[in-house]
Amino acid sequence: MEICRIYVRRKIGYTIKSKILSSQNQSIELKQKLNFKFLLNPALFPYTQINGVREAKNLSDYKKITEAFLNELPKYDALILRLHPSFKNPLPFIWSGFDVITRFTFRINFEENTAPETKFKESLKRQIKAAAKTLTIKEVNNTKNLFKLKYLDHQKRKVPLDFNQDLLEDYHIRTLNGIKTVVLEAHEDNKCVGALLYSIIKKEAIYQVGAVHPEHRKSKALTLLLAEAIKQTQNTERIFDFEGSMEPGIARFFSTFGAECVPYYQIEHYPNALAKAALKAKKFLG
Predict the structure, then answer these.
(1) Which of 107, 166, 197, 252 has most Cβ atoms within 10 angstroms of its Cβ?
(2) Considering just the CA atoms, what is the radius of gyration of the chain in Å?
(3) Same domain, 57 and 164
(4) What's the Cα-to-Cα distance from 147 to each of 109, 143, 239, rounded to whole Å?
(5) 239/20 Cα distance (integer angstroms)
(6) Do residues 128 and 200 both lie within one domain?
(7) What is the pLDDT of residues 191-211, one digit of tens each?
(8) What pTM was computed for the model?
(9) Is 253 part of any domain?
């Protein structure tokens, strides 16, 4: 794997170094803190795609591509990676001593002959129609308003944000491994009240970042933005992926778009027990 980006964050008493490693369609972050090396999904990169999955037909094929993937990894003390939903058989990882956790995302398959909006729930259609009366959707070329809204939202909920403005903008403006990004904003009376970013990776549109101003939650801005993102991609891409969530309320919301609940695997491996304890500690990699 080759290094394509390096980030350094200095805090009192220690430095965190992050390297984004890339090989074909894979992107993995090597994060170093103190004497530990962690392999993780980079912020804003939803999945690790393992080369050869599309050609894998049986367990023997999965064993070969898993071994090839592991042989390419640099040395690490702890690893946590979310695998793309196309990876169907994690047994070779289990044989190699990895823990495997089943997680879920929500996806719309555009290759079906049915128009996506016909699967929207009636309550969702009413919300979209009402929101369209007061909101205007615009496509923009920067992430300034999106990050501002995301920051406000996380402050309101007292939840830490795992990326900053520079990282978000860097992800948006770069084309890495064939990734294209689109930023949409919802405006009411010339004020940005909601925004989202979706990516297109190998004919799959993935909703990655979205936020609504805390004072405009009832505007249904995010609902209208997602409907617009689906509309923009339904004739050109194969899939629209909502990128999870395991949260009941969010899962129910995504399902109103007619999205199917699809499993994917998270793999974990801890050659260094101390690194495992450190990684599980709150804010260790913050």
Answers:
(1) 197
(2) 20
(3) no
(4) 29, 6, 26
(5) 26
(6) yes
(7) 999 999 999 988 999 999 999
(8) 0.87
(9) no
Q: Token digits for 4?
A: 């394509």
Q: Where does the chain have alpha helices with state H? A: 59-72, 91-95, 122-134, 144-157, 165-173, 221-233, 248-255, 273-280
Instruction: Tell me the CATH number at 118.
Output: 3.40.630.30
| Whether residue 87 is found in the same domain as residue 9 | yes
For residues 144, 48, 102 and 124, what is the CA-based torsion angle, rounded to 10 degrees?
40
Claim to verify: residue 185 and residue 231 sit in the same structural domain: yes
Domain encompassing residue 58: 2-103+264-280
283: CB partners within 8 A, 6+ apart = 160
Structure tokens at 42: 């980079």
For the chain, the domain total comes to 2
CA distance 116 to 231: 8
Max Cα–Cα distance, the chain, nearest Å: 59
Q: Do residues 264 and 82 touch, judged by C-beta distance below 8 A?
A: yes
